[in-house]
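HUMAN: Mind making up another protein with tokenized structure?

ASSISTANT:
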Amino acid sequence: MTRRNTSLCYASTLFSALAWAAGPALGQATLPSGYSFTQIAVSNTSQTLPNGIPPGINNSATVVYEVQQAGANSFFAANGSGAPTSLIPGSIAGPLGPLNDSPSINDAGFIGFIATSSVNGCPCTVYTTNGTVSNTLATGLQWSFSQILGGLNVPINNLGAVTFRAPSGNIIRADPNGTQTVIANLTGFISTGLPGSVNRSGTVAFAGEDANGRSGIFTSNGTTTTLIAHDGGIFGQVSGSGNNFPSINDSGVVGFAASNIPPNGVNGVFTNDGTIAGIITDNSAALAFSNVAINNSGTVAFIGGNGSSQAIFVGTPGVAPETVIQTGDSLAGSTVSSLVIGPDAINGTGQIAFWASLANGQAGIFRADPSAGVGTTADNPALPTAIDPNGAFNIPLGPCLTGLRCHDGDIYYVDPPANVAGYNYSVDPTSSPFDGVILPVGLGLGPNNNYYVLTLFNSHFKAYIPTLHVLTGGVPFHFATAGLANPNTFGILGVNPAAHLDPTNVTAFPTGLTFVPGPIVGNLQMAPVTYPKLVASH
């Protein structure tokens, strides 16, 4: 069954997913619609926000973060409206407080953490909780105090499963039903790092060194282990602090940073599922990259830095990354001094949770919210920027290529010039296909001028052939629901010639489109299908 998106977005320029994009430059913010920033928490006399501990965010825009109060640490959740919620019941917090160096929160509001039994350490217990309901997933774990001081991490997925590195060095996934699965053991690995994240299917991303001596980034579900990237390979250097917590999405794609990439020794950010690699950026600005997070649309957020200057960037393969925020920018009445994000920093709508230190000495947790822009409503559709030699209109798909509004967000509306019988819509064959379409009300044929006919491309006849599917204006039509394969091309006929649409009116024929989850590649093309001149003149 194909998962349906309620959002739309389109690509802006003809890039290949494997082509180098221009690298980002500090001081060059290029995101057309920009971001607004929501303050989640700031340090004050009653609470501190531990240095460099990144927050996590779920698809409801709720942010989880660590707080130290009265000498003990805890975790809170907030969305910037109303009082934060304490997530750790005192009965299970443990004498050292909950332990998790990179907290994540799932869509049900649960987090994972480790609690000690005494001030001297373990035995320890792994819990999940939403502040009201708590679940015990593993008990009797004997981490040494030095292991605790070295850091522990407990990512959680949307089904409530968590993963952690056991005292033995094995990486374990603990499911809500009590099942524990060994993801990586020290038979197959010389050493393992902390797990970065776990996706919905239970696959875990982690750093380590395998039995063949390859240091790098791996994924495993306990049955199949996949090498994503390793030192000395095509990605250059991938082990190190920049990839301490690798990030994986529900499609099994991992985002990671790399340095000293052959043959020229540049740096970059990549996505890879073990088979196909996508390049996010190169080193044209001489930046070092780290702290990569990826969402289910394949959008990557990451840190780029050059000396004392830092920025959070966002991008997808083949498209120049956009600057979200950088050192020196105004924030919370001060200016940004440094930035940190974690492996669960970006949600499905492109919101990014981050930790920042400020020039006034405070630290804060903030959420970057993508601003609404062109293509987000039917009243403000994206218009064509060019007409190709075959007469097709090229529509910018920039919001989709930056991953902000193509999946799990708003519908993206487009509108070419009108006075036509219909349109043929197409995206690159390697792009995620169309999920559905919403056509405008009252511009079609039949009762209330509100009906259109779906056409599909026939490769034998090399033409769009009318189907028996009639689409109603204003009503979402989803291909899979209608028993059709999700296409990369389709058309509609039935635009009423009596409408005399004004090509200069940006609301003339706004069309909403949704896509199946996955990368958006290239341009959207809308090719007008014209009536014969005799009909069009009436």
